[in-house]
Design goal:
This protein is mainly beta. Helices cover 7% and strands 49% of the residues. This is Outer membrane beta-barrel porin/alpha-amylase.
Length: 319
C-alpha cells in the first residue's frame, strides 16, 4: 500500500507495508518458517498477532525523516491442504516527524500451492491479494488509509537442501517471492501518483531444527532455531510520476536486508529481524521487525486448524 505525505514518509510507509505477516510451511522433512520480509510458499492455519515493525525514513537533504511504528495482524485458513485464504492488515501505525497515526486497510488473499515435491523439499505456489480501499482510517484522520484498492498477483518458491549429498549443506534452504501490485487508481485528485510496483525478495536459511532432527543432535538451547538472512525490494514500474527537485526519485528502488532469527516451538513461532535500508530512499538507519505466530494447525489439528475439505495438515510434533 502507498500513502502520500512527504516523499520520505511515503518511502517509510512503503517499506513498512512491504513487511506483512506470514505463516510456516512443512514440505517433506523441511519446515519453512514464517519469514518477516516475504511470505513462505505454503498455505496454513495460523494467527499472526502481533507483528511489530519500526523504521526511520530519511529526507533527501540528509536529515532524519519520519519514524514509523506499526502493529499488524493476519489470520490464515486452509480450505483444502493446498488452497487457503487469509485476512489481515498492517494494523495501526504511529508516525513521528510529522506526528500522525491511523489504521491501515484490510487485505485479503487466496493462495494455491500448485506443486510440491516432499522428497526434494520443493514447493511452488501462487496467490492473488486485494488491499481494500477505505477500510482503514478515514481520509480525515492524520494518517488516512488509501482510498483506492490494490490488486497483487504473487508467486512463491521454496527449496530445502535435505537431498544434498554433503551433510553440511542439508540444513540450508531458500525461499523467494515476486509480487506485481496494481492500484485501481493511478492519479489522485491532488495530482499525486500511485505507482504500479514490482516487489521481490528472498531468504537464505540455515535450520538448526533440521540439523538436530536429521543430521546430528545439538544442545537443547539451539535445536529449535532457524537463523536466516533475507531481504525485500520494491521497484516502481509504471505511473511513477514526475521527478520533483529536492525529493527522492519516483523511479528509485527501495528495500531492506538483514539477519533474522526464528524460534520454532510446538505451537508457535517467534521471529526477529534487523532491517538495514539499502539506500537513503529506503531509510535512515537500522530498523526492526518481530512477530509472534500461533500455529492453529498444531494447536487444534482436528478442528480449528483442519482444512475445511481434506485431511489435517502435517503436524510439527515429529520434530
Amino acid at each position: 500500500m502507498i500513502r502520500h505525505f512527504t516523499c520520505a514518509s511515503a518511502a517509510a510507509a512503503l517499506l513498512l507495508a512491504a513487511n506483512p505477516l506470514y505463516a510456516h510451511t512443512i514440505v517433506g522433512n523441511r519446515v519453512f518458517p514464517a519469514t518477516l520480509t516475504i511470505d513462505d510458499p505454503g498455505v496454513n492455519d495460523e494467527l499472526a498477532l502481533p507483528a511489530f515493525s519500526y523504521l526511520q525514513a530519511a529526507n533527501p537533504d540528509g536529515t532524519p525523516g519520519t519514524t514509523s511504528y506499526s502493529l499488524a495482524w493476519e489470520y490464515a485458513k486452509t480450505i483444502t491442504p493446498d488452497f487457503g485464504i487469509s485476512i489481515g492488515s498492517d494494523g495501526y501505525t504511529w508516525q513521528r516527524n510529522p506526528q500522525a497515526e491511523g489504521w491501515s486497510n484490510i487485505e485479503t488473499e487466496a493462495k494455491f500451492a500448485f506443486y510440491q515435491d516432499p522428497g526434494h523439499e520443493f514447493i511452488m505456489s501462487a496467490a492473488v491479494s486485494a488491499e481494500i480501499g477505505n477500510t482503514g482510517s478515514p481520509q480525515s484522520a492524520s494518517l488516512p488509509s488509501d482510498p483506492f484498492s490494490t490488486i497483487t498477483p504473487k508467486f512463491f518458491i521454496g527449496k530445502g537442501f535435505g537431498d544434498a549429498s554433503a551433510d553440511w549443506a542439508r540444513p540450508f534452504a531458500v525461499t523467494g517471492e515476486v509480487d506485481y501490485s496494481i492500484p485501481t487508481v493511478t492519479i489522485n485528485s491532488d495530482g499525486s501518483y500511485n505507482p504500479t510496483m514490482l516487489t521481490y525478495g528472498a531468504s537464505l536459511q540455515y535450520s538448526l531444527l533440521y540439523e538436530n532432527s536429521f543430521v546430528h543432535q545439538l544442545p537443547d538451547v539451539f535445536n529449535r532455531l532457524i537463523p536466516a538472512f533475507e531481504g525485500i525490494f520494491s521497484t516502481p514500474v509504471a505511473n511513477q510520476g514526475p521527478v520533483i527537485p529536492g525529493e527522492f526519485s519516483p523511479y528509485e528502488t527501495t528495500g531492506v536486508v538483514g539477519p533474522s532469527l526464528y524460534y520454532i516451538g510446538q505451537y508457535f513461532e517467534i521471529g526477529v529481524m534487523a532491517q538495514v535500508p539499502i539506500n537513503r530512499a529506503s531509510g535512515d538507519h537500522v530498523g526492526a521487525l518481530a512477530v509472534l505466530d500461533i500455529f492453529l494447525d498444531d494447536v487444534a489439528p482436528t478442528s480449528l486448524g483442519k482444512p475445511l475439505f481434506g485431511a489435517p495438515l502435517s503436524p510439527l510434533a515429529r520434530y
